[in-house]
Task: structure prediction
Amino acid sequence: MTLFLLSGTALLAIAAVAASGGSRSSQTAPDGGTGQPATAAQAQGRIDELEQQLTQAHDTQSRQIVIGSAIALGVMVVISVGLGWFVAGRVLRPLRVMTAATRRITADSLHERLAIGGPGDEVKDLADTIDDLLGRLEGSFDAQRLFVANASHELRTPLTTMRASLDVALAKPGPVPETTVTLAARMRAELDQVDRLLESLLVLARTQHGEFTDSARLALGQLALTALTGRAKDIAAKGLTVRENRSDGSAWVWGSQTLLRRVADNVVDNAIAHNDPGGWISVAVRAEGDDAGAVSLVVESSGPVLDQRRVADLAQPFRRLGADRTGTGRGSGLGLSIVAAITQGHHGTLDLRARPDGGLRVTITLPRTDGRAPAEAPDTETGVAR
Result:
């Protein structure tokens, strides 16, 4: 359109110059002789008058040409803008569709494709290339999840065999050397740690694969209470004070019973394991947003001062913040990463914040179920409405 405008302007300038050039004519006439001075003078006056009229007519015509050309140029500019906008919209529409579809596709929906139709042009080739890339990514993700799940299952067999061997060695008749008993206890503790790690990998693979087979309506506060009750001995052993705030009775969510219970267990375990002796733990359930369309489980704990720039890394697998965050070094580094994966799988968000005076605040926000659903009494062990 810009080139068309420049060429039209140049054409208009050339037309104006050509039109004005014709008015520059000679104003002199040859002398017809001296024999008839009166007649010659009258003829010359008549010629001058005609030339003046011709010049005026030529100037008028030139102005009309310039004005007409300017109007035509303006009309063509408007038409060109309209046509350019229409053609650009038609050409860029598939690109907008591709952009929206690509933004919509995530790691949990790699099975979707752009599926752009139309003639085999460059845009169609680009869409087909992106679809092929999504297919390869989907295969890679599936292979990774399948490998983790299969490897975790296959490793359980030798773990079971090793436990059985320890039991047989300790159950032999006769006195068992103290060193053997100590070694067996240490080996059993390590085997338990490996078993917990494999279980965490299984949960992580299952969550990333979106396998929710036990969905139900759950009381978020009750899940937190169950997690605290099950760890009462650990809390007492460390001398921790628990502050509870579960007054929001509308904090019901819909999701996997097993996985959401694992979320509550992991955040409470994290608050206990990485706390100071004699510290405190705060558990609160609250509504989020003006329309209370979401509810949050907030678990805060005391502890050492953490670097906020590194706290976000705790949601990644096998990420720790040094020895002070691993305690005895027995942590697998998967606790909060499992929480993040399960929360994302339930269309929620996980927010990790370092407290200014030490410790960590974990906020898990999930969509709230319809509060008008039948309010059945929850199971005190699971928090499930039945």
User: Anything to note?
Assistant: The chain has nine helices and seven strands. Residues 22-35, 323-330, 371-386 have pLDDT under 50 and may be disordered.
